[in-house]
Design brief:
With about 200 residues, the protein is mostly helical. It has helices at about 5-25, 35-45, 70-75, 80-100, 100-105, 110-125, 130-145, 145-160, 165-175, 180-190, 190-205. The chain folds into two domains: about 5-160, no CATH class; about 160-205, no CATH class. The relative contact order is 0.10.
Length: about 200
């Protein structure tokens, strides 16, 4: 890795650390510093979208598990080191997708609750294979999985909602799901106030 690559990663890490802290504050959550740091690591890792996808075959020509169910089943019968790697990958990937692609999950055949259940279970199982410090972090992520997903949704929306298209998508999410988070974001942007004013003018009040 070059010096420039190292600088970019460090810069990205600082950027995402700030976004994680803002997301946690926005949701009014209390998360340990260990979990905050871990979320920063996840966001930095998935800056490269290729990390979301597994090559079909590994270096030995063996097929890699592709779906969440395959990852889970493969982890159950794997030797300890491989098992921890697979559970971590499953948990991280599920957490990230739930936060950054929540709208896609709402339109997919796989229920969003399936992702949440799979992710929380992966971290819970991973915690049982860890020493004290990491055990605490993974246990907390498992216990607060849905809250942490909302933190990532806040980060995702903050990154995208600067455009008219982003605001429209956010409103569509609110109409379709009744999401409190989407409503709060729209209120913060003044969308409801603006539309309320327009409706009053149209009605003559």
């Amino acid at each position: 890795m070059s010096i420039n690559d190292t600088m970019i990663i460090q810069s990205g890490s600082d950027f995402f650390n700030t976004m994680v802290k803002t997301g946690i504050e926005t949701r009014g959550l209390t998360l340990s510093s260990g979990v905050s740091e871990y979320l920063t690591q996840i966001l930095t890792h998935y800056v490269d979208a290729r990390n979301l996808h597994e090559p079909e075959y590994n270096e030995f020509g063996k097929r890699n598990p592709q779906t969440l169910a395959e990852l889970w089943l493969t982890a159950q019968s794997a030797e300890p080191t491989t098992q921890k790697d697979l559970l971590k990958k499953l948990g991280d990937r599920t957490l990230y997708i739930s936060g950054f692609f929540s709208e896609s999950l709402n339109r997919s055949l796989v229920d969003v609750d399936y992702y949440h259940s799979m992710g929380a279970s992966a971290y819970k199982s991973l915690a049982s294979h860890q020493e004290a410090t990491h055990k605490t972090v993974f246990s907390e992520i498992s216990d607060k999985f849905l809250d942490i997903v909302e933190v990532l949704i806040v980060i995702s929306q903050d990154a995208f909602v600067k455009t008219d298209q982003g605001i429209l998508r956010l409103y569509e999410t609110y109409l379709r799901t009744g999401s409190t988070l989407a409503k709060e974001k729209l209120e913060a942007l003044g969308v409801f106030t603006a539309w309320s004013t327009s409706l009053k003018k149209l009605s003559g009040h």
